[in-house]
């Protein structure tokens, strides 16, 4: 297979996954690889982030290319030799592949990149819900490593191998998390008249939460609310003292986001009160929408065509989320979906990055660098 050494490295990273802000081994491998290429290497950016700087000529233009490094807190149920050796930690989103693709691009650009300017290779920690991109920005990422624009890609199992999609405007959704705790009950299941029923209230609330998007958000807007966990009780003959509901909200418009949060809080309070109970709501907006700038989205697709990919505009954004959104709030840029079929869906416990994507990703990152620095 082409790029055999990078495939071997990708599989090594898969076998040794690390959670967000704990990517010490991965960051060390990345830093060592970049140093051997002769790049200027900066470690510990935003915690465990690494930035490699490659300069050519005297040009003032600069571009940032970003890959994420962290894994997910879930078991690996795969059967491959390079299955995760870390209990309860798994590269089920392909960040091992993203890291290797960007390392490959750094090698190719360092060896033969005829451009005039600066390429900043940004290896980011903690994408999976911990906002590593924001941590790097707070650590003065773009002041220390100026970027006129910044680009990233994610493997996309829903697209055929050799294809690429992105679009101007929103490409990924804002992601919110809610946790609702209903309290004030507790008693014998055979004496329901003596205790408010937390599970009954929680069940009614789950049903009503699923009406918010359909009945409170403008039908022309895209929004989603999913209840993903409901907990309560530990015995067959006990009404529990509390019940917990957890879920996620995805939106593209801050107005829709405000409506969903307000209605959720109102429903939780009123339905709980109607049952003689209290509700505590913790609502956290952890990632904003990922919004591409038009010029950079066009550049990303043009670079994909140069890389030999079937590139086209995405017909609609995805309701998944991505903390690259924080970088796009700070700098112009674009986020690309890179076809990776055939593979399991993202976040599946048996997911394994499709190594055939590696050459495409390397060529795309390299073409983006050249295009962004106006040398093709």
Automatic annotation (TrEMBL):
The keyword Flavoprotein does not apply. Its cofactor is Mn(2+). Keywords: Hydrolase, Manganese, Metal-binding. Signal peptide: none annotated. InterPro entries: Amidohydrolase, Bact_exopeptidase_dim_dom, Peptidase_M20, Peptidase_M20_dimer. The Mn(2+) ion enhances activity. The keyword Manganese applies. The lineage of its organism: Bacteria, Pseudomonadati, Pseudomonadota, Gammaproteobacteria, Enterobacterales. It comes from Acerihabitans arboris. This is Amidohydrolase. It comes from the Bacteria. Residues 177-257 form the Peptidase M20 dimerisation domain. One of its GO terms (biological process) is diaminopimelate biosynthetic process.
């Amino acid at each position: 297979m082409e790029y055999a050494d990078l495939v071997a490295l990708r599989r090594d990273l898969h076998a040794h996954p690390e959670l967000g802000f704990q990517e010490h081994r991965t960051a060390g491998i990345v830093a060592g690889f970049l140093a051997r290429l002769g790049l200027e290497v900066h470690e510990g950016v935003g915690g465990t982030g690494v930035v490699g700087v490659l300069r050519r000529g005297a040009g003032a233009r600069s571009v940032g290319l970003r890959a994420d490094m962290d894994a997910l807190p879930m078991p690996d149920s795969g059967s491959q030799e390079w299955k995760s050796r870390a209990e309860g930690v798994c590269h089920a989103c392909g960040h091992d592949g993203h890291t290797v693709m960007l390392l490959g691009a750094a090698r190719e650009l360092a060896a033969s990149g005829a451009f005039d300017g600066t390429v900043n290779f940004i290896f980011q920690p903690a994408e999976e819900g911990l906002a590593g991109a924001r941590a790097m920005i707070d650590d003065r990422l773009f002041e220390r490593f100026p970027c006129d624009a910044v680009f990233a890609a994610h493997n996309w199992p829903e697209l055929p191998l050799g294809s690429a999609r992105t679009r101007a405007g929103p490409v990924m959704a804002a992601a919110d998390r809610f946790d609702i705790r209903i309290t004030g009950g507790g008693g014998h299941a055979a004496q329901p008249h003596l205790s408010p029923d937390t599970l009954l209230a929680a069940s009614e609330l789950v049903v009503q939460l699923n009406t918010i998007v359909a009945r409170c958000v403008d039908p022309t807007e895209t929004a989603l609310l999913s209840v993903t966990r409901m907990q309560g009780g530990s015995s067959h003959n006990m009404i529990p003292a509390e019940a917990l509901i957890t879920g996620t909200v995805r939106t593209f418009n801050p107005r829709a986001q405000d409506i969903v949060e307000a209605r959720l809080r109102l429903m939780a309070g009123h339905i709980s009160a109607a049952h003689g109970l209290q509700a505590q709501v913790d609502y956290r907006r952890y990632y904003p929408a990922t919004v591409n700038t038009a010029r950079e989205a066009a550049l990303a697709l043009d670079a994909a065509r140069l890389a030999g990919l079937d590139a086209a505009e995405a017909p609609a954004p995805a309701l998944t989320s991505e903390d690259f959104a924080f970088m796009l709030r700070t700098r112009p840029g674009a986020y690309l979906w890179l076809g990776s079929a055939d593979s399991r869906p993202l976040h599946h416990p048996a997911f394994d990055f499709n190594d055939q994507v590696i050459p495409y990703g390397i060529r795309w990152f390299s073409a983006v660098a050249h295009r962004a620095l106006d040398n093709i």
